[in-house]
Sequence to fold (609 residues):
Amino acid sequence: MEAATARLGRGGKRRKKRGYGSEERRLATLLLSPALIVIALVAAYPIGYAVWLSLTEYSVRVPGKWRFVGFDNYTEAFGSPDFWAAVKNTFIFTGLSVSLELVIGLGMALAMHAAFKGRGLLRTVVLVPWAVVTVVSAITWRTLFEPNLGLAPQILEAVGIGQGVVWLGQEGYAMAVMVLADVWKTAPFMALLLLAGLQVIPDDVYDAAKVDGATTWQRFRRITLPLLVPAILVALIFRTLDALRIFDLPFVLTGGTNGTETLSLIAQQELTTNNLIGYGSALSVLTFVIVMGVSFLYIRTVGGNIRSLAEDN
Amino acid sequence: MEAHAVDRVRTEPKAAEHRAPRRKWVRPVLLWFAVFLIFVFCLFPFYWLVNVSLKTGSDLASSDLIPPNPTLDNYSSVFDNGDFTSALRNSVIVTSITTILALIFGSFAAYALARLRFPNKFLLLAVILSISTFPPIAIAAPIFKLWSDIGFYDTYIGLILPYLTFALPLAIYILTSFFKEIPRELEEAALVDGATYFQAFRKVVLPLAAPGLVTAGLLTAFFVWNEFLLAQTLTSSPKAYTVPVSIANFTGSQKFEIPLGTISAASVVIVVPLVFLVILFQKRIVAGMTAGAVKG
Fold:
């Protein structure tokens, strides 16, 4: 630390001249390296290793015995109905839950924005589902839909939905419970992101519109929504990234049966339950590629934020 | 606020006057109804979980909203269960160590990003941030194999390292934006008064960045406490597994006889501390969640 302090001092003086001081760069390297080393060791290196493993086949019987199989694992995945079922389920789940979350989250955000008195309390209430551990949220919804114990099937039957259905035991219905559990836990997150977006819209825009005689709906449609688009975009991408990775919910709700098997889930099961390291890695890499496509969109959307953080002041 | 503004404006243009009386009560009523719905939507499932956790025996076959024979039996059996209490201890240890390390490494890196000038800063931040979007499954297989080879499988360090990797990007992002908001002049004043750079960092920057540290720390802790996929893949015994794994495996043991009451009690136990943190630090948590989105 002594040496670092000394360098800091000199770097500080150099900064007044233009250009990067080499001392300043060295200090930056020193400060950044612990974080970067951890990230490189436990994220970058394993991704490369995963790609390598996905090109191999490990013997299930003889530990440590393996052979190079090229793209066989990928060919197997693309030819497997289980893989395509998981792709379909993952996308159905993502599409349904993210769009429901947007609608409910936007409604919640508008209500919270209008209710200026209890906003603090409302924000705390809304954070409760967010704070609930995902596994616990899955258990909660499982008990809500359990035959006999659960209240939800009775309420739904009363309004004519799902007569005599064992919700978690039937394809389609199990997916509906999974979507519901996800919406409950994450719509609040969406709501808080959108509320933050609403709060940066200046009041005088609305005042001007009111003077011009715009109705509430017109103000929402012509002012609020367009100005909220950036916040909506970030929230949508955030949530899509999360939904594509979903694992906890199907694991606890159904164990990945009845049309709820998702990409992360089948990959994890091939790896640990079936001990197929090569094939499981291929599935993981495919999941990674799909998620990174969305992640690229995310980085582009928040690029402005990153740039302003990266600017020297 | 808006409702009042509407009244104020509407008294002037005469054309709109006939609508004013109806609107006066419709808006607040709708609003209170919406607020009521939000309360029910957010809190009812949690109430339900507590309700189930107080039921035993045949009560678990009925959907009563209030337990007919409320009992704390489930809670005592949860705490008598050695596997669950060790999972609780593991979670506390892994969460605290990860959070502390993330704050230390994160504030070093964030200070460099916020204050020092070096090339390719944008690229570096973009790469760091994109790590946080990695699907954990992508590193699960190689880490599982690697840890088995070097003896990190089913240990604390085997969990802390990957958690740190996923927690650091967000911590760095939050802390960098907090450090940037602290005026450079304050440090420079300290330097002029003869403080070293490290002293200026410790005595001037860190105290001012305390809210940022709280925010980053809370989000890291919530993430680690909640994480399931890696914990499920990288641990196998009460020696290292965390509470989500312990609870999820309660469920899987016997297909037709699931101790739902006990699982619910265990679930309440691991969620209550988080609910308290939310009540105490609502503002800080929201600030952290929205850090990446507001300026967008």
In short: DSSP finds 13 helices and no strands in chain B. The radius of gyration of chain B is 25 Å.
